[in-house]
């Protein structure tokens, strides 16, 4: 396995652990409750066609957010290493 692939797997593992940690937080639980309430409201307030459209929209938003999360996480790590290098902490 190449160094780049190993690095990518390492970063993926770090991101996965960070997500798991967030999902065990009070903040996530509060947000999850709000999402569950919204989903129940959609079930009772929207027609099937409206609900299907809303679900499609939310799935796309979640997909975009996941990609952004991955990008920002990786970029933050790269920036952190660059800062440490510029300060002479890393060679």
Structural class: mainly alpha
Largest sheet: none
Q: What is the subunit arrangement here?
A: single chain
- Extract low-pLDDT stretches: none
Query: Mean of residue pLDDT?
Result: 94
The separation of the N and C termini measures: 24 Å
Percent of residues in helices comes to over 70%
Overview of this protein structure:
The protein has 91 residues and is mostly helical. The protein has one domain. It is 88% helix and 0% strand. The protein has three helices and no strands. It has helices spanning 3-23, 26-45, 48-86. The two termini are 24 Å apart. The mean pLDDT is 94.
Question: Briefly, what is this?
Answer:
This protein is mainly α and 91 residues long. It is 88% helix and 0% strand.
How do the helices and strands line up, and which of them pair or pack?
Elements: H1 3-23, H2 26-45, H3 48-86
Keywords:
mainly alpha, 3 helices, 88% helix, 91 residues
């Amino acid at each position: 396995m190449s160094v780049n692939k190993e690095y990518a797997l390492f970063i993926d593992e770090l991101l996965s652990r960070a997500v798991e940690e967030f999902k065990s937080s009070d903040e996530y639980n509060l947000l999850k409750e709000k999402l569950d309430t919204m989903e129940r409201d959609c079930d009772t307030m929207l027609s099937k066609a409206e609900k299907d459209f809303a679900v499609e929209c939310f799935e796309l938003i979640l997909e975009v957010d996941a990609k952004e999360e991955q990008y920002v996480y990786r970029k933050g790590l790269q920036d952190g290493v660059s800062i440490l290098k510029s300060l002479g902490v890393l060679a």
